[in-house]
């Protein structure tokens, strides 16, 4: 049909017809077969700086890139989703095996979503510092570090498709840095995003976990943090640092910051999730053993936050009976169940 | 509201309420204030190859990245939108001054949209060949080459916002190559996209114009091409090459290909649009003068296509009274008018 020929009233009728006539509405409302009704969508660059050459030419770089969608009747607080190391906004989009990721799942739950590409990554590749992109094959290492299995074997019961296409898409969801990662610069850009959009919830993954704490200390508009498998950058008050933790993946060092800064993290609810296949005792496989100390450090970190009057919680999914998750719980085969947990947290904290 | 609590019937009612209760439905149906009703959206990698290191590690790279949206009741043929040099899928999203780009405008016109990041660019940054990313300031050169004006002056009547924020967003819409541009590899990936999605219309810009001809010769599922300001890669049958055309931006060389290949381009409708501020006679400013010969070559190219029984047309917008367009007509201030022209072409060729 040529929608341009129809009046607004008829358009509304057509939309409702599409919604109610279609067999799709017999599915659950959150079902992937129902249409997404988007009030507004678009993209923009945020943060960054400008450098000038001797010839007066400029370069605008070091911004983050954001793609956002606002559903009709959005909830009060948007979700800002920040990818991890080697990844980009794709983290939250279609899963490797072709199901809906957090972008769609939470749009269906009436949240506005803002997906970030951090400075010098993906669509935000224009930086004020150059870089070298290597094409060194390294994917089996990531397969292990992301706890899909121990290459070439998948973990028994892992929540990851065994199809070759899924693994192909999974590997192609990585994209290189176009310049040095700079935690201050990245957290500045994310803080600038919250200045632009106002109060919202920050969802981080892996490497953005630590940078997410930095952003939250910079901007009180970050009203809560949901952090999936933070891997580094655990900040502690100077004088209260736990010892570094050794693992087959190297030592995990806590980061000391001024106590007044740390206290800012005690003002918001924070929840941290880790998946399965994390050993209790040291083991030789660095891909798994690194997560043993990251999980331990996260628990130590949450204890410290709470000792100072904060509200942080670490949920180790197998401990609540949710098994088989990789380093990417939000895109694993059970990601609707994982999303339900996050929805439960947001409801419990009256953030939805 | 917690949408998960509602039945499908109630959901439909809520959506309809949202649509009809809101004052927004008093606007025109294609208006940016009406909701987009998306049946399906997602992203995937397409094309590319795999290399293996001596240690058995692999690297999947050289794919294109695609973000797609399918509206409810889509038209027969999707639109596949391919950015130009130094750009990425952002080209088709929100304009530099915050209005809707072709992604939203054509979703509102009931077309499914597929936005590409070509191999080794933006979200498709993972390549099988490494590269060096330079941070050399060069934006005033692009300001001139993209015909916004002659830095620091805007062209009188240029269809580009004078706001500083718009220029800031415009410059930040560039992203570097993460490896060498490879026209064969890029057109292979785009051809693979058409293998996946079936018959569709290819929309190209600038540098993707020439690569778009290559893709169309590889894949008959490309049913038409709308090319905005193709800048190079004009293919002619061997033996029918026009002379190179000299300009202040350098010589534009035609590309010879086997006549049998060329003939494939005579089987589909092709329309080419160029904007304003292209000089009729040679001038010293390379930013403008380069387009003088590209426009001339495009006209020569269309004549050759048509002489061989094809259907190609070059529309120089000022000649039909549409003035002030830059190198990015689809995101200029008058982009709805420019989109109407494209809709008219698609209707005329029964492609909608």
From TrEMBL, chains A, B:
It comes from Zoogloea oleivorans. The lineage of its organism: Bacteria, Pseudomonadati, Pseudomonadota, Betaproteobacteria, Rhodocyclales. This is Alpha/beta fold hydrolase. SUPFAM superfamilies: alpha/beta-Hydrolases. Residues 79-298 form the AB hydrolase-1 domain. Keywords: Hydrolase, Signal. The keyword GTP-binding does not apply. Coiled coil: none annotated. Residues 1-27 form the signal peptide.
């Amino acid at each position: 049909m040529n929608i341009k020929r129809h009046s607004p009233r008829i358009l509304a009728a057509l939309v409702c017809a599409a919604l109610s006539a279609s067999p799709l509405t017999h599915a659950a409302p959150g079902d992937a077969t129902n249409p997404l009704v988007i009030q507004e969508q678009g993209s923009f660059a945020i943060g960054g700086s400008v450098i000038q050459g001797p010839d007066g030419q400029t370069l605008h770089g070091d911004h983050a890139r954001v793609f956002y969608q606002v559903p009709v009747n959005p909830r009060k607080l948007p979700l800002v989703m920040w990818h991890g190391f080697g990844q980009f906004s794709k983290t939250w989009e279609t899963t490797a095996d072709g199901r809906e990721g957090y972008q769609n799942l939470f749009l269906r739950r009436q949240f506005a979503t803002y997906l970030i590409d951090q400075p010098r990554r993906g669509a935000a590749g224009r930086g004020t510092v150059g870089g070298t992109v290597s094409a060194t094959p390294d994917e089996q290492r990531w397969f292990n570090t992301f706890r899909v299995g121990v290459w070439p074997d998948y973990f028994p019961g892992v929540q990851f498709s065994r199809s070759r296409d899924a693994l192909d898409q999974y590997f192609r969801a990585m994209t290189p840095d176009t310049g040095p990662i700079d935690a201050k610069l990245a957290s500045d850009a994310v803080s600038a995003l919250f200045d632009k959009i106002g109060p919202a919830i920050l969802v981080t993954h892996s490497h953005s976990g630590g940078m997410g704490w930095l952003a939250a200390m910079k901007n009180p508009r970050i009203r809560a943090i949901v952090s999936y498998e933070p891997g580094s950058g655990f900040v502690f008050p100077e004088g209260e640092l736990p010892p570094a933790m050794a693992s087959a993946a190297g030592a995990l060092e806590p980061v000391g910051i001024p106590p007044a800064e740390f206290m800012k993290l005690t003002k918001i609810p924070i929840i941290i999730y880790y998946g399965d296949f994390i050993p209790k005792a040291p083991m030789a496989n660095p891909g798994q053993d690194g997560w043993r100390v990251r999980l331990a450090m996260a628990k130590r970190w949450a204890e410290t936050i709470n000792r100072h009057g904060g509200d942080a919680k670490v949920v180790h999914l197998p401990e609540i009976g949710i098994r088989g998750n990789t380093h990417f719980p939000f895109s694993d085969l059970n990601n609707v169940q994982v999303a339900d947990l996050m929805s439960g947290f947001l409801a419990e904290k009256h953030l939805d």
